[in-house]
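S.,

Sequence below, as promised.
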Amino acid sequence: MALVRFNPGVIDPVLNEWSNLINDFFGTEVAPNKLMPRFSQPAVNIRETDDEFIMEVAAPGLEKSDFNVYVEDGVLHVEVNKEVEDKEEDQNWRRYEFNYMQFKRSFQLPESVDTQKVDATYKNGILNIHLPKKEEAKPVPPKSIKIK
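The prediction came back faster than expected:
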């Protein structure tokens, strides 16, 4: 398994300038992430211990119900499909913005992973996926042999 490097992309400088002009004019903040998603692919960290691989997927602002995590044919899939709506109403105007966030990451799992015991938790914007190793794949400590 290899670490996957995150490429956040570049937010359009014209969009940032436009957002700053609106903020100055109306005296309010327009969140750039409502106009343009902050990421298309989340950052992923993978580490290995003697007993398991641990994958951390940085995906703030989501709920655990937004994720679909599954293993199929030795491949781990992490998917999110979320629509965000923001409505504000006033006597003279109405604003309605929506954003659709979607990503899918797939990882070929090593043969040493016990796919029946994979589990995941989501807390503080981080999806943690635990990929336990099969017993036969875990390192065995050296056995000292007594000479008779």
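Residues 41-87+94-134 form a domain with the Immunoglobulin-like fold (CATH 2.60.40.790).

Coffee later?
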